[in-house]
């Protein structure tokens, strides 16, 4: 019997040894799974940069804090590695986490006494590197951190809805990836993400990695870097101007866009409402990019296209008289904004006066078919194909004669803002229509090689060069003629051409809303009018505090922005001082903070450091500019954006600080800073208005 047992046992062991299976389980595979550990190696997500290489979005880390409370936890040399003095730890954590000492103690004393470790709820998640380091510096036994991938937006509110944000696939998993969920981050998510790698190590039965164990590794492929066409200097200034108008007049929606008319490159684009990508403040009210995702009736800026079509089709006689005030079309009465009109006037005055009746006259003279042909040439009702997610195509209501007439002054037609910029470019470029661009190039993060470059793209020639020149002259008259509707946009020493717009807003109950503020007010400008380098387009919907005329409100953005566009790149001061007495500003981007500071001081300049980082991501003045010795160069680092000590800074320095950070700064007095409402070292992410007081020495 015993012999039979040993024979059976031998046969069984032999079978297992040969087949490496027991009861259908692959023992080799089971052993491999037990003693091998596979870990994901996250790829570095590519950076998003401005046209000059200044960082807009980059890889970062956040931290979750937890506490080991099991007395079995030991360090490698056998010392206790758990929280011993819970009261002391709770008191310290309550200073850094948004919880009380009592709440911290409740977490540290769970009902399950056998629990190995505890977390601190939402209050212990998503900590910044600065906060993590502050807690870690207290050397509290048992307090641990888990590093998680995140995204850094060092400029705060900066074309936020266009750039977009990311979201972690699993907010508590160290191997979690982040994905773009809005804007550029979403549209180019695959290109930015790269490809994760894999690492396999051998470990013992307790899960510890075995020394000198073989590592099988599949390298991660980092994501590409995306260079946008945005110019940080112009973008930051646009943000400041837009926020000032938002604070004063509370519009329901505001859009500001600057496009290089020669190339189609968008150099600045912002909207209100918007949100802070670091704190998330305002996100629930601004979960879309209105520049492409919202469609609206453009109003009188559409008259740029109407006038273009009438001239180009041979249906425009500037000396022809028409009766202004009102006109009957089908069963609808169409009025001028001045209901009484201006009597019988030449059609040449219709555009600068912004006469709806005059535009209807031109549309009827062209005929509906011809007018529709030109709208199609201008690609109204078609997506531009700009590389942003969610673009809407808009549309044209053209069934009735009254609809056809109303499209001539921007009603019964829906567009998006980028679509209008594209159409305006045909006038700016003497007939050639340029596709708006937001991407400059794509660069391989590993090799530094440019993978793709985006160049100016002509998408049509809807009008002749001669027509475009005549329309630009008419836009200049809007500013210069005593009856022009855009006289407030007259910028000294700049030959600006504009078209103003006031579009009614459709009511949910049919028809249009009434009331002095229930409009979309707009201005489209070409700078300079005769050979435009820039197109500036601003729209503002329903200002709730309309204490000024809509034109005056929009001019608070348009005029200073135009001045900045014209003056950028020129020397800050014009004098007869020899050029050798100026200092040429070098590029300090990507330099360490210490190296950049020493470089600035060696050039007889002053440094103004913003943030806690060790690398420079933005500078003002920009490289290539000339300044007088002794001037301050403001540098933004890649760390948390913190308030510097502004003591002794000039008003010009403070304005640089506001431009670089995008913060709302109010100055009181002149001279040099003597006090500031926000203490040095305070994080700027959610600081609100900053008041700086200056006095002459």
From TrEMBL:
Gene Ontology BP terms = cell division; cell wall organization; peptidoglycan biosynthetic process; regulation of cell shape; response to antibiotic
InterPro entries named among the record's database cross-references? Beta-lactam/transpept (IPR050515), Beta-lactam/transpept-like (IPR012338), PASTA_dom (IPR005543), PBP_dimer (IPR005311), PBP_dimer_sf (IPR036138), PCN-bd_Tpept (IPR001460)
Keyword Transmembrane helix set for record: yes
Database matches in Gene3D superfamilies: 2.20.70.70, 3.30.70.2110, DD-peptidase/beta-lactamase superfamily, Penicillin-binding protein 2a (Domain 2)
Tell me which Pfam families the record gives: PASTA, PBP_dimer, Transpeptidase
Annotated compartments: Cell membrane
Main location class? membrane
Q: What does this protein do?
A: A transpeptidase that forms peptide cross-links between adjacent glycan strands in cell wall peptidoglycan (PG). Part of the divisome machinery that synthesizes the septal cross wall. Beta-lactams inactivate the PBPs by acylating an essential serine residue in the active site of these proteins.
Task: Tell me the protein's name.
Answer: Cell division protein FtsI penicillin-binding protein 2
Show which residues constitute the signal peptide: none
Keyword annotations for this protein, in alphabetical order, are: Antibiotic resistance, Cell cycle, Cell division, Cell membrane, Cell shape, Cell wall biogenesis/degradation, Membrane, Peptidoglycan synthesis, Repeat, Transmembrane, Transmembrane helix
Sequence similarity: Belongs to the transpeptidase family.
Q: How does it sit in the membrane?
A: Single-pass membrane protein
Q: Which GO terms describe its cellular component?
A: plasma membrane
Domain spans labelled PASTA: 637-696
Matching entries from CDD domains are given as: PASTA_Pbp2x-like_1, PASTA_Pbp2x-like_2
Q: Does the entry feature the keyword Cell wall biogenesis/degradation, yes or no?
A: yes
């Amino acid at each position: 019997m015993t012999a039979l047992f040993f024979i059976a046992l031998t046969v069984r062991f032999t079978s297992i040894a040969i087949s490496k299976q027991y009861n259908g389980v692959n023992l080799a595979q089971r052993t491999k799974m037990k003693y091998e550990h596979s870990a994901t190696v996250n790829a570095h997500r590519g950076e998003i940069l401005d046209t000059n290489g200044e960082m807009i979005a980059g890889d970062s880390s956040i931290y979750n804090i937890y506490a080991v409370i099991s007395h079995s936890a030991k360090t490698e040399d056998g010392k206790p590695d758990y929280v011993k003095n819970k009261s002391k730890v709770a008191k310290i954590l309550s200073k850094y986490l948004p919880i009380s000492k009592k709440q911290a103690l409740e977490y540290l004393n769970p009902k399950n006494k056998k629990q190995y470790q505890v977390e601190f709820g939402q209050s212990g998640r998503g900590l910044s590197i600065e906060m993590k380091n502050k807690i870690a510096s207290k050397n509290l036994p048992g307090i641990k951190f888990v590093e998680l991938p995140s995204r850094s937006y060092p400029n705060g509110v900066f074309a936020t809805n266009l750039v977009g944000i990311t979201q972690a696939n699993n907010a508590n998993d160290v191997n979690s990836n982040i994905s773009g969920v809005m804007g550029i981050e979403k549209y180019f998510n695959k290109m930015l993400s790269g490809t994760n790698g894999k690492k396999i190590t051998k470990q013992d039965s307790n899960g510890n990695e075995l020394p000198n164990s073989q590592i099988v590794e599949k390298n991660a492929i980092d994501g590409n870097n995306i260079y946008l066409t945005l110019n940080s200097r112009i973008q930051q200034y646009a943000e400041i101007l837009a926020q000032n108008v938002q604070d004063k007049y509370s519009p329901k929606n505001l859009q500001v866009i600057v496009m290089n008319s020669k190339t189609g490159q968008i150099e600045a684009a912002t909207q209100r409402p918007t949100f802070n990508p670091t704190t998330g403040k305002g996100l629930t009210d601004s979960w879309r990019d209105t520049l492409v995702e919202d469609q609206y009736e453009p109003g009188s800026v559409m008259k740029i296209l109407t006038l273009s079509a009438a001239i180009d089709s041979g249906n425009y006689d500037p000396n022809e008289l028409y009766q202004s005030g009102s006109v009957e079309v089908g069963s609808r009465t169409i009025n001028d904004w001045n209901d009484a009109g201006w009597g019988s006037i030449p059609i040449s005055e219709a555009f600068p006066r912004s006469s709806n009746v005059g535009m209807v006259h031109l549309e009827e003279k062209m005929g509906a078919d011809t007018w529709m042909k030109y709208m199609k040439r201008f690609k109204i009702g078609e997506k531009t194909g700009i590389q942003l997610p969610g673009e809407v195509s808009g549309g044209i209501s053209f069934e009735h004669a009254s609809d056809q007439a109303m499209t001539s002054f921007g009603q019964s037609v829906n567009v998006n803002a980028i679509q209008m910029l594209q159409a305006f470019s045909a006038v700016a470029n003497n007939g050639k229509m340029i596709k708006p661009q937001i991407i400059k190039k794509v660069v391989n993060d590993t090799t530094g090689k440019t993978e793709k470059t985006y160049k100016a793209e002509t998408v049509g020639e809807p009008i002749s060069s001669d027509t475009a020149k005549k329309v630009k002259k008419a836009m200049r008259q809007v500013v210069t003629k005593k009856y022009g509707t855009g006289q407030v946009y007259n910028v000294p020493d700049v030959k600006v051409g504009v078209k103003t717009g006031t579009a009614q807003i459709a009511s949910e109950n049919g028809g249009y809303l009434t009331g002095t503020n229930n409009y979309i007010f707009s201005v489209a400008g070409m700078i300079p009018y005769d050979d435009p380098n820039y197109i500036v387009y601003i729209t503002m919907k329903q200002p709730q505090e309309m204490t000024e005329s809509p034109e005056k409100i929009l001019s608070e953005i348009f005029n200073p922005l135009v001045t900045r566009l014209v003056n950028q790149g020129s020397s800050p001061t014009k004098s007869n001082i020899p050029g050798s007495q100026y200092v040429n500003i070098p590029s300090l981007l990507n330099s360490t903070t210490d190296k950049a500071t020493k470089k600035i001081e060696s050039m007889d300049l002053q440094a103004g450091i913003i943030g806690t980082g060790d690398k420079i991501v933005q500078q003002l003045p920009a490289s290539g500019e000339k300044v007088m010795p002794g001037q301050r160069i403001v540098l933004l680092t890649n760390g948390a954006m913190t308030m510097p000590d502004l003591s002794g800074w000039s008003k010009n320095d403070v304005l640089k600080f506001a431009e670089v950070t995008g913060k709302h700064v109010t100055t009181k007095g002149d001279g040099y800073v003597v006090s500031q409402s926000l203490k040095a070292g305070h994080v700027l992410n959610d600081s609100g208005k900053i008041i700086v007081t200056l006095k002459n020495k």
